[in-house]
Amino acid sequence: MLIRVYTASHEGGYPIVITSDRATMTNYSDFNALGFLLCLPERILPSPIAKFFVAPRLRVSKNGRPEILPYALRKIEAALYMSGFTDEDFIITTPEVFHKFVGPNTRIVAIHVLDPMGMAPVSYTLRALFGGGRTWTCRLFLELVDKIRKLKERYKFTFIAGGPGTWQLKDIYRDLGIDVLVHGEGELIFPEICRNILNGERIEGEVDGGSVPLELIPPIRGPSRGGMVQITRGCPRRCRFCNPTMFNFRSIPLDVIDREVKVNKRAGYRLQSLVTEDGLLYGARGVIVNKDALRKLMKILKDNEVRGDFCHVSIAATVQAPDIVEEWARENGHLDDCAFPQVGLETGSPRLLKIYMAGKAAPFRIEQWPELAEEATEIMNRCHWYPCYTLILGLPEETEDDVKATIDLIKRLKGRRCWIFPLLFVPMGGSALEDKDFANVRALTEDIYVEVIYQMLDHNIDYTLSILDLFVSRIKNKFARNIMRKFIGNSVRSLISVKEEVRRNFTKLLEMARSVDLNNPITLGRLVIGWMINKFKNNH
Q1: Cβ(389)–Cβ(343) under 8 Å?
Q2: What global pTM score does this model have?
């Protein structure tokens, strides 16, 4: 039971104030994929585009509560309610207005973190390719922390950080003024921490929420950004480089999914994003596709008259159940539209798979991996699923022959409708490889890695331009859609002129990238004037 020994006066601040930085507390112009642009160094992504189109402010009601929230914070909100807290006890709000609700009565300020220091694989790789510098995710996180530290000096509250990005803060969180770092899942541990602090206990240091049992994961009560609904947690494949595999693999019960789908539908989300490490393993025991469970999941969506996209699927599950992929695509309108699931391609080397991701190809043989990747791509493309494949470069023990196998696989996928993004190895906290070194950025200039970059560009440039209109069509705001079409299109076209230079002198290109600063007013002005001149020429 919560013993209230504080005054819940909103004029004096809420006892618990929760927020996150702008990199997550936004709607990404109603298209979640734009969020990856915030992994770019801040000098590469112009500030007006970042703040007005990629990460616009969320609207808040008169009482300070946003109309939508990131899914993770909706779960924390539901967990607090389930633990006996009320609207008088806490508020979850945006980084732009949270300070208005902090005061003498505030005992806790908590933030959700995803990529606070720009060390996640996408951020780490983009920093390497574009000459280094602070990412937008890092900039926005540090801006928020600076505001909180100033308020903390005045009101002496406990500063808590939790979320999947806490591993990036383990060595520096105290220097940032953070008192408590919460790792793992938060639905049980966070309400307990709040209760203890409000009842006078002093809590500091790192704590781990572990894995929350299914029956204790509450359904969200308000709409989530992008209409997100979680359908699984964890992953049964046990890849050594990935931290979600450290948690138990669980499929969320259908009745909880149904409640969350209804919540998002009431907010107008007819297309909902199904949060999962592998949507085709919903209801599975191990890695064998459960077709009955997937059909029941389809029925939930159909009965609610909404569509659903998996955020992640796997190659092996796709090859197992091409009939289910086709059925899902047909039921969810993909044959008339499309879907862009993220898929771990990882490597073309069966040898590396055996060492670091032995379950990746299961129930098939690891030696079949390149053929499985081709077959899965064909299946997905037939169903208008256009995967965003990610590769890992620089795994410990990677040899030149392993990289050659990856290059061969990229070539085998040429002409298919997919993106291929090589990412540098990052020893993520919580993974079995967390004590290893980050991939060496200097290795990118070695001929074998340069060839990977060249083959990636050769494939992605043409494909991106061919799919661009369809890709940005998901952005609801017409003005934002046109701006992002121009920004992405022009950025990709600029790569055409440098593609051949990658092979000739990649080191020089990296040095040139370090000097690019699109937030420099002079540089930005030249680009705008150049665009206006080209537009005038094209119209006349």
Answers
A1: yes
A2: 0.92
